[in-house]
Design goal:
Layout (H helix, E strand, L loop, with lengths): L2 E10 L5 H11 L3 E7 L2 E8 L1 H13 L6 E10 L8 E3 L20 H8 L42 H8 L20 E5 L2 E4 L1 H12 L4 E4 L4 E6 L3 H11 L7 E3 L3 H7 L4 H8 L5 E5 L16 E5 L4 H10 L3 E5 L11 H8 L5 E5 L11 E5 L2 E6 L9 E2 L8 E3 L9 E4 L2 E4 L9 H17 L6 E5 L5 H8 L4 E4 L1 H12 L6 E11 L5 E9 L4 E7 L2 E2 L4 H5 L1 H13 L1 H9 L5 H9 L5 E2 L2 H13 L9 H10 L15 E5 L2 E5 L1 H9 L4 H25 L4 E5 L6 H13 L3 E4 L10 H11 L4
Parallel strand pairs: 2-5, 8-14, 10-12, 11-15, 18-21, 21-22, 23-30, 25-29, 30-31
Antiparallel strand pairs: 1-3, 1-4, 2-3, 6-7, 6-14, 8-9, 9-13, 10-13, 11-12, 15-16, 17-20, 18-19, 19-20, 23-24, 24-25, 26-27, 28-29
The protein binds zinc ion (ZN) (2 copies) and fe (iii) ion.
The site of fe (iii) ion has 7 residues, from helix 13 and strand 23.
Amino acid sequence: MVERRRVRVRGTVQGVGFRPFVYREAVALGLRGYVRNDSAGVVLEIQGRPECVAELCRRLTDSPPPLARVEAVEATTLPPTALPSEFVILASDGEGEPNAPVSVDTATCDDCLGELDDPSDRRFGYPFTNCTNCGPRYTIVTAVPYDRPATTMAGFVMCPACQAEYDDPADRRFHAQPNACAACGPAIRFTGGATATEGPAALAAAVDALAHGAVLAVKGLGGYHLAVDAADAVAVATLRRRKQRDDKPFAVMVADLETARLLVVLDEGGERVLSSPRRPIVVAPRRPGAAVSPEVAPGLGELGVMLPYTPLHHLLLRRLARPLVLTSGNRSDEPIAHRDDEAVARLGPLVDGIVSHDRPIHIRCDDSVVRAGPGAVQVLRRSRGYAPEPLPLPFEARRAVLAVGAELKSTVSLARQRSLIASHHLGDLEHLPAYEAFLQATGHLARLYAVQPEVVVHDLHPDYLSTKYAVELDLPVLGVQHHHAHVASCLVDHGRVGPALGVAFDGHGYGPDATLWGGEFLWADLDRYERLGHLVTVGLPGGAAAIREPWRMAQAWATHAAGPEVGRATGARFDDRAAAVAGLLERPTTIPTSSVGRLFDAAAALLCGRGRVSFEGQAAIELEALAAAVTIDPRRGATGGVEVRWEGDQLVLDPAELILDLLAAEPGPEAAARFHDALGHATAVAAALLAGRHGLGVVALTGGVFQNARLTQIVAGALRERDLEVLVHRQVPPNDGGISIGQAAIGAHRPSI
Ligand code: ZN
Ligand code: ZN
Ligand code: FE
């Protein structure tokens, strides 16, 4: 009895070691036949004993190679035939465009780690060990098809031993494009002061410098990090001063999961994502007494930790044997430095030494950030290890789309057929290096994925560089309202097309009525939206200055709640420019805003005494940290001080009394918790009312404000109690990093442009 089957495998199955995997399994099961790549994925024919044929099919789904994402396995039984007497890997048919030509950068696998640690292995201690299942991908690819000459490994000629692995279908390194060893591959180099060393001596010198409090630049996968001993308060303070970063938390890399558990509280989901091959920074509650300097994340109850993701990181962390601050090598919000000349020029003055290597980085890619809250993991920055893995679209795109995002936390996205390709994190476009990264990513992604956009989607804000770029392209354009894009990004995250009631709370986005939106209740699907309600508006005194200086918002909200006298007195508690701000608030040219982000700023100013901030969202993060001492009580359902009322056809949330309460309250955890509770419950009341009126059963919570886990928990809990389905962001960032994803989905779904 022999059986013959033809099997098609769809998903991310190319460039991930799928064919050698099939080859090894088929040979082990005594099957004959072939496997090859084609435009739709991988196709194979197998013939042999029926139970062996069935077993191979099972393994395709159950135990594929680590980097593969199998979406479907479709098998057809055929009459047995005279197949070759063995199993072979055939060349691809070369037709069509593969769906996922480039996989993501992936952390060192266990097999490679074993070799790194094995004194008898020829890769013992070699910092660039990789294989088909791990190593650099997206950051080294210069063109497609993904082949060694189209990577930054092109300049390295494999030695005979590496070449033999590369050519052997039974080897773990069969067609591993970045394959290398100490004899033929990249080498590390340490420059400190007047001395330069290479190879193992460079590693030893770098570890020694770090152990003595030095600030080093370290070249990683997607760019340069700045590194210091995380327990050394003086070194951390030096890093802060040199990087001109006042308060923004630094991430910490630790050698292993056991060490991570000593620093932060992780549940099962948090541990899983921390140790996943994507290796993001995981933000989680910090353990009291965690052995890192308070300077690492001043004023916060949480800490961002990550595990080593390259052999170089493993070697550094093991030798140093203590947590290492590893923060993007840049100044303020510029993108991470990734070219060697750029690192010397931009980072040289900030550091005591540079750990570099001679494998170029083609695409800079910052570390991804996820937050591991109670029972939920949320991606806050989707970059290295995640980008450019396509997200599935729940519909067939009507056209190929380029979406250029907003301004802060910029990303760009492409949509075509049934997938959406979002770029890595590009930074804040107001900085020139970020705009250059934006231009590079846009062209590079379109070439890699062979997408010729038929329409370009942009934000409605006319002054964003992304908008200006879009309208200058010779393509039809579609302007999408900022908060509509936020809601769409949340829908796509859940494979939905809507309609849903969107609750979009963020810093701000351009509203079509010439106000700055940021506390919006929208009826929305992937085609259109309608504004149903919003936070009551107050003046944004001084535009961008009001974002840097939350005391201005405290004055604006105090003025709204209690009049100009109390307003001015409130502002004067922080700054002697309160009279000028009072003047601004009376001026008709001052733009009104419904921003919930700015309401959080006002509350944080009042309760944390935070008059000015050094990074976006800082005030809100500190307010949440302050409230953390008070456990969330689901029975405290009072909307305490936030009125929900109709103004014409709009439902308006007015927290005037809540502000009065905060003005009189003892600043501290109780008041901070009350603020979250009242705002959260009022939001749920308003959302439920609007959902009921418009026959919507689904509420999507989106926008940067919903990075606040406490607010999200209160709103989602209260809505679920009212039998509404609540969508919370998971894989797509709720902040502006997700805007291009929402824009792309809308551009691909609308019946007409
Ligand atoms: Zn490996
Ligand atoms: Zn070699
Ligand atoms: Fe936004």
